[in-house]
Amino acid sequence: MSVLHAAPLLEVRGLSIGYGAPIATGIDLQIAPGEIIAVLGPSGSGKSTLLATLAGIIPALAGRISISGRDITQAPIQDRRIGLAFQEPLLFGHLDVLGNVAYGPRRHGASRPEARARALSLLAWVGLEDLARRSVQQLSGGQAQRIALARALAADPLLLLLDEPFSALDADLRTRLATEVARGLRERGVGAIHVTHDVDEARLVADRILRIQATGAGTARLMP
Amino acid sequence: MTTRTSPAWLGWAWVLPAGFLLAFLAVPVTVILRHAVGSWGTAGLSVADARGTWAVALLAAAQATASTLLAVAVGLPIANVVSRYRFRGRSLVMAFVTIPFVLPTVVVALALRQLIGPGLGPGLLLVIIAHAYVNLAVVVRIVGSQWHQLDPRAESIARTLGAGALQAFWTVTLPRLRPAIASAAAVVFTFCFTSLGIVLILGDASTRTLEQQVLRQTSVLLDFPGAAASALVQLIVVSAVLLLGTGMGRLRPTSLQASRLLPLPQRTVPRLLVLLVAVVASLLVLAPVVALVVGSLRTSGGWSLQWWVSIGSVDAGTTRIGSPIDALATSIRYALVTAVIAAAVGGLAALAVLSHRTGRALAIIALAPLGISAATIGLGTLLTYGRPPWDLRGTGLLVPIAHALVAVPLVVAVVMPALRLADGRAAHVAATLGARPTRAFLTAYGPILGVVMLAGAGLAAATSLGEFGAASFLAREGAPTVPVQIARLLSRPGEQSLGSAGVLAVILVIATLGLVMLVDGMGRRMLTR
After folding, report:
1. For B424-443, what is the mean pLDDT?
2. From start to end of B77-231, where are the E strands?
């Protein structure tokens, strides 16, 4: 299912990533709208650093990142329209479920009722609208991860970065949730980079699989 | 911990601490209550007196609120930097920030008087600054330890959802820190509300505290019922604030995660900001201490060792209160006796907590002196054991007993967690190898117990050396402790008095920091075993 012929959603050219010293260099990457790619690699190979750089949490050491043709290499995190979900749901403990999902729309200027309506529609999408007023402390692991994904999508991102989001769940739930999320993202036309070390999970959700491989000079590259 | 291999005497470990706390905490507090209730119940305390007490309480509450706000405002950025980022010198900055808290309050007061006193003059502003200075460590430690555990990725997620950096802090990080900030603020408020040394040396009529009122009513007006009433009002306010603080301070465990320190931000401006906060915090904290040392080395004629050389002579103090060197000898003697009493009582209380179910109740009682001001302890001890039938004034034990009460919670706090760390199964192994219960117990807990008891004793000695509140009630006229002597010297005019006070303060700084570093070193040694 190749969608590469479409205009790229994300375009990365000659990207170097790392905290001070580069751990991967010369990264080139294109993602089409609605395309999901999986990035595989051993622990410490720079998968999470790549996501942190794309999200703007750490600056790129070199290279250029564009999203829908707009150069965002230097753009602040909140202006990139890139969503993020980690292995831990990292829900905001002082807000209830609805408050968590409505957080993004509110930051983007939606009124309280608008944000609430959007949050409820996303909660319905993940099948958890009944839990809207529940404290996040009372959720199961799977519920919390669905809420985290609903929260990320409520901010209307163009691209979603998934940093091993299902690896804390048991095998059955992992497979089911990964399939559901992949389908939902495609339906909504949201592109995604899914970082994992599980080849089966990568095959299940991704249109393409890339690997971070060491080049021998202490750095690594992204290769098909 | 009590098992079939435990020695029989362990079951009786609670007796000494319980007896000590009953005699020197419960009885004196009851005596204060009896005096206070008696004075209110009869015509002993007029309505005007009662109004006066509440007026002072209000004044002190306003001062304590302002001091707390300043401490939190200055402490938060420092907590952010030292608890979240990894950089060279981070531990040093942390140690610097802790210094004001471990220094005796009269020393801090003198240091700030040397540094900014000439420009600012005594009064509310100077007192607020001094209180914020002393309590910076409370904010940095309590808020910092919570901040360290917050997963920084939650803030990153808020940013990806559209929040700017400040907005992410305001809407995601600050709410998660609120419990810790409430706890820290309650503790700081309590310290500022019950302040004595700092308000005596740096304050004026606008900075009176109930603690000061209790001292004045006891030593100047000889109005013991009035003093007891003031102490009671203070106890009520402090208990209410601490309860409120702990109520608001309930932590949400699921929002926490053990997280590692972050590397410094890679972008230049945030990176420089972090380093700037670290440098400015260090300078702010060290400047008064440096001013103190410089002050002890200067006379009106320039640099001189005059104050240091004359410290042994009676002229350096007053003929009435003896030489500063005598005060040092008194303080050291008291510190040693305090160390022995506090280590025995606190150590046994900690053992009792681990070995006995009712011991847990004892632990709560053993920690109670934390919420009771030093002057309340001093007044209670004086009312109970400063006159017949149990007059202990001639024994020289009143001050060490009061100091031990202040220090026992610290000893319990040092000994108890360490005992929990020890592996009790070693006792079972020793028993199977033929050791009798006491030998088996000592095999498992002896080595760690030796280290932590010494550390606790060191901490108790440091507390005694710097304690001012209780000592100002109990120290005999001719045998003041060093902090009391410093306060007396500062109340007298003249360069000689200031110079001698400065030298005594520097000696206290060295002794206190030396002891605290020793205790810290022992703690590290224990953890690396």
Report:
1. 80
2. 85-86
At B285 the three-state DSSP class reads helix
CA dihedral B102, B108, B112, B114 (to 10 degrees): -120
Quote the mean pLDDT of chain B. Answer: 84
Domain count for chain B, please give it: 2
Alpha carbon B147 to its chain centroid, in Å, reads: 23
The ipTM is: 0.86
Share of chain B above pLDDT 90, in %: 31
Residues A211 and A154: their CA atoms lie apart, in Å, by 30
Instruction: Check whether residue B133 and residue B202 sit in a common domain.
Output: yes
For residue B400, CA distances in Å to B340, B381, B463 come to 10, 11, 11
Contact A46, A82 (CB under 8 A): no
Peptide bond into B389 cis (omega under 30): yes
Nearest CB to A108: which of B158, B162, B171? B162
Three-state DSSP state, A33: coil
B285 and B330 both lie in a single domain:
no
Question: Tokens standing for B466?
Answer: 């710097």
User: Which residues constitute the domain of residue B288?
Assistant: 45-298
B162 with A157: Cβ contact below 8 A: no
CB-side exposure of B394: number of CA atoms within 13 Å? 4
- Assess if residue B35 is contained within a domain: no
Distance, C-alpha B512 to centroid of its chain: 12
The better pLDDT of the pair A169, B500 is held by B500
pLDDT (average), residues B477-484: 85
How many Å apart are CA B98 and CA B76, to the nearest integer?
A: 14
> B148 — alpha (psi -120 to 50), left (phi > 0) or beta?
alpha
| Interchain contact, A83 vs B161, CB within 8 Å | yes
| Residues of chain B positioned with their CB less than 8 A from the CB of A86 | 153, 157
Q: Which of A54, A79, A90 to mutate to test the interface with B (most CBs of B within 10 A)?
A: A90
Interface contact B160-A83, CB threshold 8 A: yes
B303 in a structural domain: no
**Is the CB of residue B341 less than 8 Å from the CB of residue B402?**
no
Cβ-Cβ contacts under 8 Å for B218 (sequence gap 6 or more):
B224, B227, B379, B382, B473
Give bridge partners of residue A71 from the DSSP assignment: A66
Using the predicted structure, report yes or no on whether residue B349 has a pLDDT greater than 90.
no
Together in a domain, B369 and B457: yes
Residue B153 identity: R
Contacts of B250 in chain A (CB under 8 A): none
Residue B2 β-bridge partners: none
Q: What region, left, alpha or beta, does residue B302 occupy, with left being phi > 0 and alpha being psi -120 to 50 degrees?
A: left
Instruction: Name residue B156's amino acid.
Output: S
Cα separations (Å) of B140 from A146, B279, B463? 36, 15, 21
Could you count the other beta carbons within 10 Å of the beta carbon of residue B320?
9
Q: Which two tokens stand for residue B227?
A: 């003093």
Same domain, B20 and B133: no
Point out the residue among A76, A92, A155 whose CB comes nearest to the CB of B172. Answer: A92
Angstroms from B295 CA to nearest CA on chain A: 45
Is residue B364 very low, low, confident or very high in pLDDT (cuts 50, 70, 90)?
low
Q: What is the pLDDT of residue A219?
A: 60
Do B266 and B368 fall within a single domain?
Answer: no
Most confident of A86-90, B225-229, B284-288, B415-419: B284-288
Place of tokens 């702010």: B284
Tokens of B94: 């942390």
What CATH number should be reported for the domain holding residue B350? 1.10.3720.10
Report which of B309, B498, B15, B255 is spatially closest to residue A137, judged by C-alpha positions.
B255
Same domain, B294 and B325: no
